[in-house]
Amino acid sequence: MEEPKVQQETVSQELAELKAQLERKEQQNKELIERLQRLHADFENYKKRQARESEEVLVRLEDQLLTEILPIYDNLERAFRSFNKNNDKDSFIEGIERIFAQFHAFLEGKGVRPIPAVGELFDPALHEALITVEAEDGGKVLEEFERGYQRAGRVLRPSKVKVSKRKIPETSQQSTQAL
């Protein structure tokens, strides 16, 4: 009769060990879930912080750009104030020309360059064709309506242009119509 009692004790011990293992595993799972939740919260906070910092950098860059443009604005304001006070057109035009040169230097300093247009071959990556006209020499930019600009190899704004397209010779048109 001893055997069933020994078996029962062995089974009881194994059961106790299995219960202890289960409790340890449940505790480990609980700790892992809590850790995962903390990591998720940390990552969400990191994303929010990065978005906030990116926005702050953008605002600072805009502020810097505006600070660089303000002297040009101030000079325009002075030119108009002076013109309204003295009504001297020649001085006003001279002042506006200086302000234009100042603004041109600002753009050049930022790496902004005009896109060559008139006389160039039409390039849809650089030019926007508003009008096309027939001419002997097709595919050339004939007129620029609005200058385009590029910076660091990227188009900021394409040139708005009039483009020539090759004239179809009369004989070709007649033979096409005859078909």
Structural features, described:
Homodimer. This is Protein GrpE. Keywords: Chaperone, Coiled coil, Cytoplasm, Stress response. It is a single chain. The protein is an alpha+beta fold and 179 residues long. The protein has two domains: 1-110, Hemagglutinin Ectodomain, Chain B (Alpha-Beta Complex); 113-169, Nucleotide Exchange Factor Grpe, Chain A, domain 2 (Roll). Helix content is 64%, strand content 18%. It contains three helices and six strands. The protein has helices spanning 2-86, 89-109, 170-178, and strands at 112-114, 127-135, 141-146, 149-151, 154-157, 159-166. Strands 1-4-5 form a three-stranded antiparallel β-sheet. A three-stranded mixed β-sheet has the order 2-6-3, with no helix packed on it. β4 and β5 form a beta hairpin. The longest helix is centred in the first third of the chain and has 85 residues, at 2-86. It is elongated, with a radius of gyration of 38 Å.
In short:
By secondary structure, this protein is of the alpha+beta class.
Uncertain spans: none
CATH class of the largest domain: Alpha Beta
Q: Count the DSSP helices.
A: 3
**Biggest sheet descriptor:** 3 strands, antiparallel
CATH topology of the largest domain: Hemagglutinin Ectodomain, Chain B
Number of strands: 6
- Tally of structural domains: 2
Average pLDDT over all residues: 87
Question: What is the percentage of strand-forming residues?
Answer: 15-25%
Strand-pairing-aware structural class: alpha+beta
Query: Level of helix content?
Result: 55-70%
CATH architecture of the largest domain: Alpha-Beta Complex
Using only CA atoms, what is the Rg? 38 Å
Strand order of the largest sheet: 1-4-5
